[in-house]
Amino acid sequence: MLLFPPLKENCQGTVNKGKKRGLRGTQGLPGKAGPSGPKGEKGSVGERGPTGLSGGQELNHLKIQVRELQAQLKALQATVSKAQKVLLFPNGMTVGEKIFKTEGSEGDFETSKATCSQADGLLASPRNSAENSAIQQIAARHKKMPFLGINDIQTEGTFKHLNGEALGYSNWASNEPNNSEGIEDCVEVHSSGKWNDRSCAEKRLIICEY
Predict the structure, then answer these.
(1) What is the pLDDT of residue 181?
(2) How far apart are CA 81 and CA 210, in angstroms?
(3) Rounded CA gap, 38 and 25, in Å?
(4) What DSSP assignment string belongs to the chain?
(5) Half-sphere exposure of 62 (CA within 13 A, CB side)
(6) 160 touches 200 (CB < 8 A)
(7) Are 177 and 135 in contact (CB under 8 A)?
(8) What is the pLDDT of residues 153-172, one digit of tens each?
(9) Cα–Cα dist 95/124, whole Å
(10) Closest by Cα among 67, 55, 180, 193 to 132
């Protein structure tokens, strides 16, 4: 009987047919920080800045700025207010910061004052030749004579503005004022721009100023 020799395992044995794959290790913790380096050299001194305001000076400066802004706001509001009146009250002219306007209506002296007051204005009262000329031109467009905000109701012969201010400018026609028949306490403007005293009960073109 033929006997076969036992099979030999390979040189590494059946359990070592291949190398086992090793496991990957985990990353370790970072090491401690090293010691600080040597201190650097001191830098050069920078340029000196401007001297600042003290607490009191800074407060005063802010107060001045606030007052200036308030003044600008007030002026802007006044300008807008005047512009609105111009749009609502046509047929006018501007002289400096003053606006003269009419809507073409007529009234006696008291009615004229009240009409202008209701529009937040005053009955036109020129302080110089330029303002008088503007009133004259407006009146000429309507071919009517207006009353001025000037009278001598309180003291005969002493004409004043509505606020009681004495006249610093006047443009009386020749031999005027004459208080004809003793009833002429108000002032009208002729087409020439000259003034004439007239009864306050007469009806005249209403021209307001703003």
Answers:
(1) 92
(2) 10
(3) 38
(4) -PPPPPPPPPTT-GGGSSPPPPPPPPPPPPPPPPPP-PPPPPPPPPPPPPPPPPHHHHHHHHHHHHHHHHHHHHHHHHHHHHHHHHHHS-SEEEETTEEEE--S-EE-HHHHHHHHHHTT-EE---SSHHHHHHHHHHHHHHT-PBEEEEE-SSSTT--EETTSPBPS---BPTT----GGG---EEEE-TTS-EEEE-TTS-EE--EE-
(5) 7
(6) no
(7) no
(8) 999 999 999 999 999 999 99
(9) 12
(10) 193
The per-residue pLDDT for range 8-57, each reduced to its tens digit, is: 444 344 444 444 444 455 666 777 777 777 777 777 877 877 776 677 78
Q: b or e along 136-155 (b: 16 or more beta carbons within 10 Å of the residue's beta carbon)?
A: bebbeeeebbbbbbbbbeee
Q: Whole-model pTM? A: 0.60
Q: What is the distance between the alpha carbons of residues 184 and 170, in angstroms, rounded to a whole number?
A: 17
Residue 160 has which token pair?
Answer: 């004043």
Q: What DSSP line would sit under 114-139, residue for residue?
A: HHHHHTT-EE---SSHHHHHHHHHHH
Residue type, 140: A
Looking at residue 25, its amino acid is G
What one-letter code names the amino acid at 84?
Answer: Q
Alpha-carbon gap, residue 127 to 148, rounded angstroms: 11
Contact 84, 109 (CB under 8 A): no
